[in-house]
Each structure stands twice: as C-alpha cells, then as structure tokens.
Design goal:
Length: 349
C-alpha cells in the first residue's frame, strides 16, 4: 500500500478513468436511483422547524431519559415530538400549536421535571420564515447555475459547461439522498452546505477541464493520441492534485462531524458538516468519473476527433490509454507530433 501511495503521489499511476466510463455511469445511476428512492420512500427530506414552523423547548434535566422527555411532551398534547440531548440540556421540537397549547405544554414539562416554568425556554417559529429561506436558496441556486453555464461556455465551451452542470446535479441528488436515508434534519445551515459543495465540485471540474483544454488544443492529423487518450492523460496528471485538495479539505470537516458533534454537541455545525463531508467526496468522484467521461463522450462525436481516431486505429495505435510506465508528458506539444519528427523516424527506418 505504501508503494502504491508513493507512485500515486509522484504521478506514476495510470488509471483508465475514461475507458471505464460505462462502469462509472452504472455506479452513478445506481447511487442516483438509491438517492431518489430514499426521497420517495421517506416523503422527501426531514425539514427542520425553521422550514415547517413549530415550537422549540429547551431545558435542563440531567436525570431524564429520551423516552421520558418524549412521553411528557406527547402527554401534554404536543405532536411530532423530536427530542435531542445536547451539552446544554434537552432540545424538544414540536409541530405548530395554538398559543394556549404551547403554554400548557411548557407548564407540563416544568412540573414533570421539577423546574420553574421560566427555566423551560420557548421559541415559536413560523413556517413563513422558513419558506422565505427556501425561496432565497432556490433563487441562489438558479443564479449560481446560470453564472456557471455562462462562465464555462465563455472560458471553455458549452460541452464542458453541460458536463459540469450534470456533475453538479449528480452531487446534489446523492447528497440529498444521504440526508433522506439518514433522517438528518435539513436546516438553513444545511442549505449553506449544499451551496458550498456546488462550488467545491465545480472547482475540481474546472481544474481538470483546464488541463484537458491545454492538452487537446493542438490535436490534429499528425496527433499521436485520440481525444479520449489525451483527456485520460490530463485527468491522471491532475489526479494527485484533486486527491490532495479533497484530503486537506475533508479532514477538518470530518473532525467537526465525528468529533465535534459527539463530544461537544455542535448541532448547527453537524447540519453543515454532513453536507460538506458527503458533498466533497461525491464532488471529487463526479469530477473524475462523471464530468470528464461525459465530456469525452460528447467530444468524440465531433468529426475532427473521429477522423483522428480512425487514422490511429488504422496505424494500430488507437486503442486505450498509454501503457503503464510509458505515459507521454501532458503538454500541448506532446499531444501533437510534428511532420519533422515523422521524417526523422522514416529516415531511421
């Protein structure tokens, strides 16, 4: 394993990402089906009180149990009771209730746990506020997508823009599926996490696309590689950069998710960190195994690159990526052999 890690770090490992695109498409389709099934079976996401509206009760009762707290609020007339234990005590979320019933539940909880009524703090949240947050998040997502499409189309081309957008939706759906199956609450912090992973996934895709653009810029009739081979080589040369970026970014997020929420009860950070943790992993996967293979699928349909592939196939040089240990340097010139080089080879023969 250490030998593989050293070879990977030095860029000496060739992975045929593009050649195995049917495998990646199948895996992505499976993950998307599972995610969509989770959303359907669980009736969507578990929206927090900020979106649905309701009441939040907070109090301290060290000797109480979750079942006791839940039973107390249910007996007092509360519905859809969600109980959470934090370092600051208990946090109980209920569905919306009339003001008199809220007061009744507050008094019942105070009596059950031997507390003054003012020590059972109450926060009533209207559903309209959550609706405004959701509407603004949707508007932000639409504006973000349009800006990304415009930028990628101008800086690269529309096929790269399409591939990147498909990868972004792929990341969002799978992350939402994880939330649906895990039952984690979706809060405003979660929406921030969703918007953040879009930017992260896009960053990774742009790095790869920029290298592909450089390598394939001078592919012509004398090229030594097809578009598929050139794109796969470019992907391998950005592989270690993508993995390093993901590792450095995901370590603090994992610390917040697995250590901070367990030891310190960081509830809001938990909502944000789960979206970031899942989104970063899926975003790295999609930039390598979804966006680039899809781009190659679109580009190989162009007559220019089909002609190159036919010529190399006729020479017996057009199947698969470069062999291990013999990968060509990824530069714009390396992807295109000059006529002078061909003359020299002919004289040697």
């Amino acid at each position: 394993m250490s030998g593989i890690a050293r070879r990977l770090y030095r860029g000496e490992v060739d992975v045929d990402f593009v050649g195995r695109r049917k495998l990646w498409y199948g895996l992505s389709a499976f993950l998307l089906v599972i995610s969509i099934a989770g959303l359907i079976i669980n009736n969507g996401l578990n929206l927090g009180v900020e979106f649905k509206g309701g009441s939040v009760f907070s109090f301290k009762a060290p000797s109480a149990t979750i079942e006791q707290v839940r039973g107390t609020f249910a007996d007092a007339g509360a519905h859809q009771v969600i109980v959470q234990e934090t370092n600051n005590g208990w946090r109980v979320t209920t569905a919306s209730m009339p003001a008199e019933e809220v007061t009744k539940v507050q008094k019942g909880a105070a009596q059950e746990f031997g507390l003054p009524q003012n020590q059972v703090t109450l926060q009533v949240i209207g559903a309209s506020w959550g609706g405004q947050v959701a509407d603004k998040a949707i508007v932000g997502l639409i504006v973000f997508m349009l800006a990304i499409i415009l930028y990628l189309t101008v800086a690269f081309e529309w096929k790269m823009a399409l591939s990147a957008i498909v990868a972004l939706f792929h990341d969002l759906v799978i992350t939402a599926g994880v939330y649906a199956w895990s039952g984690f609450e979706v809060t405003p912090a979660t929406l921030l996490g969703f918007l953040t992973i879009l930017g992260y996934s896009l960053y990774d895709a742009v790095v790869v696309f920029d290298m592909i653009k450089e390598v394939t810029a001078k592919l012509g009739t004398t090229s030594k590689m097809t578009y598929t081979q050139a794109a796969n080589n470019a992907l391998n040369h950005t592989l270690i950069r993508s993995l390093n970026t993901t590792l450095v970014a995901i370590l603090p997020v994992a610390a917040i998710l697995f250590i901070g929420t367990t030891l310190f009860g960081a509830g809001t950070l938990k909502d944000l960190s789960l979206a970031l943790f899942v989104g970063m992993i899926v975003g790295t996967y999609s930039s390598l195994c979804v966006a680039t293979p899809m781009l190659v699928t679109l580009k190989e349909r162009e007559p220019r690159y089909q002609a190159i592939a036919r010529k190399l196939a006729a020479r017996g040089n057009g199947a698969g990526p470069a062999p291990k240990g013999g990968r060509q340097p990824v530069t714009a010139g390396a992807a295109n052999g000059s006529p002078a080089d061909s003359d020299k080879r002919d004289k040697k023969k």
